């Protein structure tokens, strides 16, 4: 049976302003939003999250990634435009697509679907329209004053990975290593800082091809809870033996309930990741 890894992350609560201006001449930097029920929630794209994972891999394995970002030139460099998933970690994990035409104008597209799947991150809290004003230094003009939509919230997103679909399945461990290490998610130019590390995390190592743990976190008072996850384990739709839960959720009543149901509950995020890597070691 094929082994799958699913990970749902909820970040710490902080002020987010993850998007750039609408265009040249605009003084408004907007947040992306979606509507759920009667409320709007802010969101961060999967591409922005994937960028952070690429940045981490470049930082630890610079000679083993094909696409590297040069912050001085503000551009990407490709080492080998033929792409080689066997040789390059990023070609293997994130996939690629080269839509060039051949010499005879025939379709010469080469592509590989990304093995790592990432959901869009959604805020835990509704957005009520908070705006921050700023001003550039020096001589003032019509665009000196700028407005930035900001949201004090946590974000939740999910990763999915099937290690055996990788050319080198052991590379799945690199993604687990990256989860608490990513930093530059989103934009707001070079001024913005928002932690996208896990405050709490749920890892599922399973032969089930469906995650079941997406959007399992929700705001409960000023804290974060996971009542739906507790229910799924309680009714045995998710075997307790397949889950590792960690972070601040471990110190809540939900963490205690999950532990009583037989789930592995850790207080430390990195301890949980090491435990998940141990499970992969036995089966990848």
UniProtKB/TrEMBL annotation:
Q: Which InterPro entries match?
A: Cas7/Cst2/DevR_bac (IPR016581), Cas7/Cst2/DevR_sub_I-B/Tneap (IPR013414), CRISPR-assoc_Cas7/Cst2/DevR (IPR010154)
The alphabetized list of GO BP terms reads:
defense response to virus
Q: Give the record's keywords alphabetically.
A: Antiviral defense
Q: Does the keyword Kinase apply?
A: no
**Keyword Lipid metabolism on entry:** no
The role this protein plays is: CRISPR (clustered regularly interspaced short palindromic repeat) is an adaptive immune system that provides protection against mobile genetic elements (viruses, transposable elements and conjugative plasmids). CRISPR clusters contain spacers, sequences complementary to antecedent mobile elements, and target invading nucleic acids. CRISPR clusters are transcribed and processed into CRISPR RNA (crRNA).
Per its record, how is this protein called by name? Answer: Type I-B CRISPR-associated protein Cas7/Cst2/DevR
Q: Which organism is it from?
A: Chroogloeocystis siderophila 5.2 s.c.1
